[in-house]
Amino acid sequence: MKILLVEDNHKLSEGIVQALMNEDFVCEAVYDFQSAEEKIALYQYDVMIIDINLPDGSGLNLIKKAKEFQSEAGIIVISARNSLDNKIEGLDLGADDYLTKPFDLAELIARVKSIMRRRKFEGSNLVEFESISIDLRQHTVSINNNAVNLTKSEFDILLFFISNTNRVLTKESIAEHIYGDNMDMADSFDFIYSHIKNLRKKMINAGGANYIKAVYGIGYKMSAAE
Questions:
Q1: In sequence order, which ranges of 23-104 are alpha helices (DSSP H)?
Q2: Cα 9 to Cα 103: distance, rounded to the nearest angstrom
């Protein structure tokens, strides 16, 4: 899952990014309004963590921008202000949650996971599609009750597909979701083909069907077996 952190305190930002990466999230960090606005305009995120007080603007206005760009990301507002007015305004603008500094990183991570479950999987820790069952807490996958051993990238790709069933996903969008800014370092998207090839093979060997179909010239789509 891909997260955008907008926080001007570099030390706090580094701590949050490290904590999220320890939980296997892809996290991109920016430190000002302008950089955040550019990211939101160009990329899709699962969750955005936005500080209200930025050196060149208000995080509340970033929420407005996100809605203008039709972002489907869950939003957590963070601020040093223990103000009911800020909290209400952020929630009214479309934020999902609010944390007042200082906060425990474990609490932030718990709220990030809660938003993802609520937005993507109706609040459940167990995700099911056809014969596939995914335990989000344990990061395990089974097909017809047969355990499937996936790499982190394969697990993230499978979850991304299940979150977007019957939608065509481009190779670029898959790479961006899995690797974030680091995808720009790739000379080609052949590694996406390799990941999906291995993922298909493992699912079929466990007794599943070939749910992931190539869409010529565009990317891939996951749908129920015919």
A1: 33-42, 59-68, 84-93
A2: 14
- Mean pLDDT throughout 94-103? 86
**Distance (Å, whole) CA 80 – CA 26:** 25
- Closest to 162 in 3D by CA, of 222, 215, 205: 222
pLDDT attached to residue 186? 53
Q: What are phi and psi of 141, to 5 degrees?
A: -130, 140
Query: Is the distance from CB of 174 to CB of 192 less than 8 angstroms?
Result: yes
What domains does the chain contain, in order, with CATH numbers? 2-121 (3.40.50.2300), 126-222 (1.10.10.10)
- CB count within 10 Å of CB 116 equals 20
Question: Nearest CA to 157 among 123, 124, 191, 186?
Answer: 191
